[in-house]
Amino acid sequence: MMARQVLTRDAGQDRDGANAAPIQRPISLANEVYETIISQLMALKIAPGARITVDNLSRELGVSQTPIREALGRLEGEGLVHKTHLIGFSAAPQISARQFADLYEMRLLLEPNATRQAVSRLTDETLAVLIEAAGVMGRRAKSGDERARYSQFARQDAVFHDLIVQTAGNELIRDTLAHQHVHFHIFRLMFHSRVTEEALEEHEAIVSAFEARDADAAERAMRSHIERSRDRLLPVFE
Ligand SMILES: [Zn+2]
């Protein structure tokens, strides 16, 4: 999901450069509003299940209701926001223990194997992009509060995992994982620095295996990362 958004934005900038089309403005405003709301959801500034009022957001972000409604409509389509007749919008509830178990079962079936495939299709360019994506996460932002950084890490994690699956080349698997919004849901479960610190080390192991073009090690490192991620979050349901 994330990588595609980046690509879309790049394409938009190219068009801007060529035509300076004014129609890009409202699109990018809606996009900015979307990014802001999704950050607030991930950082739990808007709690799971909490009501979201268009009026409040409009005042808080200093924009009209139109881009807010547009962004909320898009989030609704992605299942991250719910809309109830006569009540309005609310943040998607936290995933259940069962949904969590199912999600990790699916990840373990798909991602380690995709990581193995990715090694065989790895080019110098994709390797550089992967190293860069892992590096961005490790860089400590000097400004911004902890929650904002956490939300940024969550989104960068999504980009990293999507890049690997994209490199593997099976678009069906990539779409299946993207539609689950795995990182959105798991990062809302627990707000804790351990979640990010440990994940960084595990990502490093994955990147090292890619650098060595070692398919076995890459598959193993991804399986271990997903299992450990599951075990870090499991206490939420106890
Ligand atoms: Zn990860």
Any overview of this molecule?
The radius of gyration is 19 Å and the shape is globular. The chain has a 3-stranded antiparallel β-sheet with strand order 1-3-2. With 238 residues, it is mainly α. Helix content is 74%, strand content 4%. It is built from 11 helices and 3 strands. The structure holds zinc ion (ZN). Zinc ion binds next to helix 7 and helix 10.
Let me know the largest β-sheet: 3 strands, antiparallel
What class, by secondary structure content? mainly alpha
Gyration radius over CA? 19 Å
Described by its quaternary structure, the protein is single chain
Classify the beta-strand content into a percent band: under 5%
Low-confidence stretches: 1-20
> Number of helical segments?
11
Distance between the termini: 31 Å
- Helicity level, as a percent range? over 70%
The secondary-structure element order is HHEHHEEHHHHHHH
Number of E-type strands: 3
For the largest beta sheet, what order do the strands appear in spatially? 1-3-2
